[in-house]
Amino acid sequence: MVWGREFFVILQLDIKQIGMGRLIADSGSTKTSWVLVKDGERQYFETLGINPVRDSGEAIEQVVDSLPPLNYELSTINFYGAGCIEPYSQAVREVLEHRFPKAEVHVESDLLGAAHALCGHAEGIACILGTGSNSCLYDGEKIAENVSPLGWILGDEGSGAVLGRLLVGNVLKRQFSPALCSTFEQETGLTRAEIINKVYREQTPNRFLAALVPFLSRHRDNEEVHGFLVGEFRRFIVRNVASYGRNDLQVSFVGGVANAFSDELTEALRLEGFSLGRILKRPIDGIADYLTT
Q1: What's the predicted TM-score (pTM) here?
Q2: What are the structural domain ranges in the chain?
Q3: What is the model's pLDDT at position 221?
């Protein structure tokens, strides 16, 4: 993952003038995955993330301007993104309409994108477990119910940011065993003062905290870590998924955290009386399938 504010394109494309196409984006706070669809073929690229709740119009413009040149016209742009709810989504729409004036622009939430990717046209419970977390009851076309995630301070249970927050809290308060606390300090090299500074004084502390999740992945076979992960995923289910009252539906996920801890997530679902549907590390292909088939 990339932690920083500089804007760049990870993969440059050599796109020739081939006529009209559809541009699809799935954007989180950290990165945006883009796919260009034309004549049944797909080309992929990435930029930094866009979140209009957090980002200014100028910052959004910088990300869009980092796209490779598209030497032909787009017919449609479908942008699904974190924070893309009214009135914030208007900022993204305005930037895209300015950059691609002949395209029909649709801006929707990343949660609807996850539902499209995971469930297609079928009813289901769709969830995001990445840097942040979210969930919804999906009726096959639209979001029927949504328990507000509330962000990483008040909510976002099971997310990378909250797992990281609880991890460092348990280490600093010595709630884990001395051996596990020592291992954390040795592997990360972080001091108490550095952690406090990064969380309370620097920008995007949620990204810093989510960046600590690989430590949990490396030690997932540790009994303490395993119990910690299952417990936090159960908390996500109880405080979010269970509110829909639909134990008959499978629960599906997108996001790096869900992908990294599928076993622990499956166990947590079973303990709370739910079953796992599918897990996608990134939803962009599923979204493209939904929109183009």
Answers
A1: 0.83
A2: 21-115+284-292
A3: 96
